[in-house]
Amino acid sequence: MARRTPKPALFWHHKPFGSTTWRYLRLTDDPTTDLGYLHAQYPQLHPPGRFVIRTYVNGKRQYKPVEGHPHDGTPFNETQAALDDAILDARAEAKLEAKLQAALASLGVASQEPRSGKGNGSSSLQSSLDAYVDNRRDHQKLEAAQNAALVLREFTQANPSLATVKGIRKEHVTAYCNWLRAKGDQSDRTIANKYQRVRAFLRWAKHDVGLDVHERPTYTKSIPKTYTSSEIAALLAAASADEFMLVAITIMLRLGLRMQEAAHAEWSDIRGRVFVVRDKPQYGFRVKDKEQREIPIPSDVAALLSVWQSRNRPGTLILGVGKDGHPTRHLYRRFQVIARKAGVPNATQHQLRRNYITTMANSGFAMSTVQAWAGHSDLASTMRYLRPASAQEMLDKVDAVKF
C-alpha cells in the first residue's frame, strides 16, 4: 500500500525570545486559519520570524516560506493572500505526490529512491518503466509522472507476456488501444492521448516500433468551449474581492493573453494604449511560436491597470513576483478557487483566450487581424479557437434569409 502523504500544516519559523536557535512552531492543524486571529490570540508566539507551510515532496519534508508578514510592514490582507497561495501550492503538490505514489505502488515499485539511466532494450520492462516514471519526477513533472505511471501500468496489463522493452512491437500498442476500447469507459480522445504517452515512453527508451503520430487513434473533435456571458459575469463578480485575480482574469479575457504571457507581462509592455507581447530572456520566457505581437488595450482595461499600478508597490511585472524573484506561479490554482466561488464547472484560463478570439472575430475584425492579436503563426490555428454561433443564436437571421 502506498504511504499516505501528511497534509500541509502551518508553522511559525522563529527564534524564541532569549534563544539563538531557530525553531519550527506548529500553529494549527488547519493552515487556513486567519492570520489576524493568530496574532490576536497568541502574541507570545510571534517574535520576528516568518510563516511557513510544511509539506512533503517525494516523501521528504519541506518547509516553504510564505511571502510577506506584518513584521515586515506587509498588511494582513496581503500576507493572507500569500499564505493562501502557499497553501494551494502545497496541497496541489501533496495530491500529485500521493497519486504518483499510489500509481507507483500499483506498478510494484517499492523503492522511493530515484533511478538513473534509461534502461536499455535488454533491461526488464518493469525496470525501464520505473526509470521512465522516475525521470519525469526528477524533472519536477509530477503530473506527467503520475499519468505515465497509470498508462504504463495499463499497458503491461494489456500485454502481460512482455518482459523487456526490446520485445515491444507495434502490435502491442495496437492491442493496448483495443484493450482500452473493450473496457468501455474510455473516450476516443482519452485513448488517443494514452497512445501518445506510450509513444513518448518508447521514444525515451530509444526503441522504434514504427509508430507514427498520424496513425494515432482518431476521435471526433468537439466544438470549442467558451464561457457564456453569465459565466463571465460570475467569474468577474467572484474576483471582485481579489484585485490581483480581477486584473489577471481581465487581461487574459480582454487581451487574449495565455497564462504564462499574463504572468510575465511587464509594465513596460504597455505603450500608450497598445500592449506588446515579447520575450523575457531574464526569466527564460519565450513567446510561443516566436510570434511577438501588439494588442490594442480597451479604455476600461487601461483604466483598471492604471488603478492597479497606483495601489501596489512599484515593480517590473504587472502581476508581481514570488519570493524567488520569478513571476507568480499560482494563477492556475487561484483561478480554480475563483471558478469554484463563481459556480462555473470545468473552468480553465484558456477558455478566456477562446472567448477573446471568438468575440473579436464575431465583432467584425478581419481574421488576419485576429490572428495577429492572438499570436498564431497560421490562420488554421486561429480557426480552431473559434466557437461557431449556435443554431439557437442564429434563428432570427435564418428566418430573415430569402430564397
Structural features, described:
The protein is of the alpha+beta class and 403 residues long. The protein folds into three domains: 9-102, no CATH class; 114-215; 229-385, Orthogonal Bundle (hpI Integrase, Chain A). The chain is 47% helix and 9% strand. The chain contains 15 helices and seven strands. Strand 1 and strand 2 form a beta hairpin. The protein is globular, with a radius of gyration of 25 Å. The termini are far apart.
- Gyration radius (Cα, Å) is 25 Å
Helix content range of the residues, please? Answer: 40-55%
CATH class of the largest domain: Mainly Alpha
Q: Structural class of the helices, strands and pairings?
A: alpha+beta
Largest sheet: 4 strands, antiparallel
Order of helices and strands: EEHEEHHHHHHHHEEEHHHHHH
Q: Widest sheet: strand order?
A: 2-1-3-4
Number of domains: 3
According to CATH, the homologous superfamily of the largest domain is Intergrase catalytic core
Distance between the termini: 70 Å
The fraction of residues assigned to DSSP E strands is 5-15%
Task: Name the overall outline.
Answer: globular
Average pLDDT score: 78
Low-confidence spans: pLDDT under 50, at least 5 residues? 40-45, 110-116
CATH topology of the largest domain: the name is hpI Integrase, Chain A
Number of strands: 7
* Count of DSSP H/I helices: 15
Q: If classified by CATH, what would the architecture of the largest domain be?
A: Orthogonal Bundle
